[in-house]
Write a structure and sequence with these properties.
Elements (H helix, E strand, L loop, with lengths): L6 E2 L3 E4 L6 H8 L14 H18 L3 E6 L7 E6 L12 E6 L8 H16 L5 E6 L3 H9 L3 E7 L11 E7 L2 H5 L4
Helix pairs in contact: 1-2
The structure holds coenzyme A.
């Protein structure tokens, strides 16, 4: 077991998952507003399974989709972090940055603040040369986070895990290469 990385930002802490995160995570995942751009909300069981999977990945690698808390405030507001997607995507292999916050915590810049810390970790510690993000094409709140992070729109694709005909199947990919790599012409 690798010591799980914790990342602190001005307002937030990205950390390993706790058992006490499960109820608020399940509440988020049952909220149709939070799950609007996913095929369906998650049952308590599916939500718990996802949290435990995310915890296990952090245990194995030291990094992942971290639980996010407000330092000195709400102990759990959602997740932000990095993963290697398990689905076969047209741009695999890749390292993905992703986020999901409870609706009460939207509109404060938390996703962007946490994502910036995760990106620094990816480029400075993991030494990856590129981070991608993707979401359903209609998910403008998430696309705005990608743009705020300096990511560049790359291509549209159908997410293989979303059934054909489902409106959230159409996805858009954004890519981010750090400046120094871009200027050296590495990619
Ligand atoms: C995607 C999601 C995380 C975006 O959350 P968000 O709160 O809009 O994004 P940020 O944390 O970056 O906050 C930025 C917003 O806060 C506002 N804001 C307020 N105070 C701020 C501050 N101190 N710093 C920065 N932004 C601030 C910004 O103006 C911006 O609002 P705008 O987009 O209306 O202009 C959220 O909508 C979500 O969890 N959705 C459901 C799950 C989901 O779809 N995840 C993505 C799947 S790929």
């Amino acid at each position: 077991v690798i010591q799980p990385t914790e990342l602190d930002t001005a307002r937030l802490r990205l950390r390993q998952w706790w058992e006490t995160d499960l109820p608020p995570f399940a509440a988020m995942n049952a909220d149709p507003a939070v799950m609007r751009y996913f095929p369906h909300p998650l049952t308590r069981e599916a939500s718990d399974a996802m949290a435990r999977k995310l915890r296990l990945l952090i245990e194995e690698r030291g990094w992942g989709f971290w639980a996010v808390e407000i330092r000195g405030g709400d102990p759990f507001i959602g997740f932000v972090g990095l993963r290697v997607p398990s689905s076969a995507l047209p741009f695999s292999p890749c390292v993905e940055i992703g986020w999901r916050l409870g609706a009460a915590h939207w509109g404060h810049g938390y996703a962007t603040e946490a994502a910036l810390a995760a990106l620094s970790f990816a480029f400075d510690q993991l030494l990856v040369t590129e981070v991608v993000a993707f979401t359903a094409i209609e998910n403008w709140p998430s696309r705005r986070v990608m743009v705020r992070l300096g990511m560049k729109e790359s291509m549209e694709f159908d997410h293989p895990d979303v059934p054909t005909g489902n409106p959230v199947r159409k996805h858009v990919l954004y890519r981010l290469v750090p400046d120094r790599l871009a200027s050296e012409g590495v990619r």
